[in-house]
Structure formats: structure tokens, C-alpha cells
Amino acid sequence: MPPVELRGPHKDDIAFIMDSWLGALRYAYQSLPDDLFFPAYRQLVKRVLAASQVRVLTEGGRILGYVVSNDAEGTLQWLYLRKQDEELAKLMLAHLPPKPNYTFRTKHYRHLLGQHQEPAL
Fold it and tell me: Sheet of 103-104: strands edge to edge?
């Protein structure tokens, strides 16, 4: 089995990142009609990606997940894994710069960094 690699995004990764992120958000906002949801949230995700650092976790060239953060602000914007795997999530989070007061935009995985309080929104 090939080793996992955490790397910066390649141009070909962006479509996967957009599709998976929008898919997860779409599930959360089912009450919005598609003609309102997709234009608004596609622009939101694009803005976040443009202002953030993206690290892509791969194995043998296949994307396993990615993490989106604003390292200067100490903000975790999004963490995605194809399959829930706490060890892979820890691996991805371990590559974030250490910040004593990390702010999480999503509540998932904050416990992996030892932060059990509710996230600041």
C-alpha cells in the first residue's frame, strides 16, 4: 500500500474540493432551493479557498481528504475525509501551525486538537 502524502493542491484537485464541499453544505441546507443555494455557496467556497491554505491528503495519487485553514488567523475552515478516519484527521490537523486559540468554523474534529469548548463563530 502506498504511503499517504499531505501536499498543496494541484489544479486538478479544485473540482473535487468544490464538489465535495458543496455536497456537504448542500446536505446541511436542504431547505434552500438549488437556484439560490449553488450560486451563493459556490462563491462563498471560492472566496474561502482564495484566502486560505489548502492541504490535500493523497494515497497513490487518490485524494483521501483535505484541510482548509487560514494559518495567519488560526482558523480551521473545513476538514474533509472521504471516509471517517480519526487517525487521518489527526495527521492532517498535525500539519496546521500551532495556535493556542484555534477557531473552528466547523465543530467536527476540534476534540482532536484538545479543544472541547464550543467553536467561536
Answer: 4-7, 53-59, 62-70, 75-81, 103-104
